[in-house]
Amino acid sequence: MGYVTTKDGVEIFYKDWGPKDAQPIFFHHGWPLSSDDWDAQMLYFLGKGFRVVASDRRGHGRSAQVSEGHDMDHYAADASAVVEHLDLRNAVHIGHSTGGGQVARYVAKFGEPQGRVAKAVLVSAVPPLMLKTEANPEGLPLEVFDGFRAALAANRAQFFIDVPAGPFYGFNRPGAKVIQGAIDNWWRQGMIGSAKAHYEGIKAFSETDQTEDLKAISVPTLVMHGDDDQIVPIAAAAHKSIKLLKNGTLKIYPGFPHGMLTTHADVLNPDLLAFIKG
Asked: Which residues pair with 221 in a beta bridge?
């Protein structure tokens, strides 16, 4: 574990586990969480002989709670700072939700131009665009995201209970098996971060059009999405992303929620391994 300082002076926390000569897998977390959200994947792939790396986005987790730079360009540049600091090559970049947007921007702008990326994975990811527009009628209305901002500003601690206890893991569905530890861990990760970073991050994950990022990616890319994702609906995300990628594969998980990496790690981890080794 350590820190790297970005070009604009921000300290980014990262984990780096496993053999330094093994193929690296870099994990990019979702909003408003931290690299801890990847525990089930990092331990799994560490056990398979990989080098596993994950960082906390600026303003999230243990990274610096800076005032500025809460946008996809800075997120990608910060990830690149970690990659360059560790000199990661032939890496697989896996991103969940907002982290999927971070992966798309990183691979398109830094990773592929630098020749550092082998493959990419977008899990329940926000690209190409979450916001509903005339050109993107499948997206969610601005009022949805305004509601997120209002709830966060009014009572972030309660909002960060309501999201994981409800739609994030699908615990609001009839017959769902509620995992209290997952709810508590989501809350813990969220509350460590900065309210300002989380507030401004909503605009970053909802209004960033990443159509051109996806078009620019040429490495093999796996798109994984649950068809009962209540946070990032599949119609505006995975179904559109796969049409924009030059070398993409789409895998849909019937009935799986947004947080399926936690609730169904036993299913997704072997699928990730098969893609990486394939």
From this structure: 120, 248
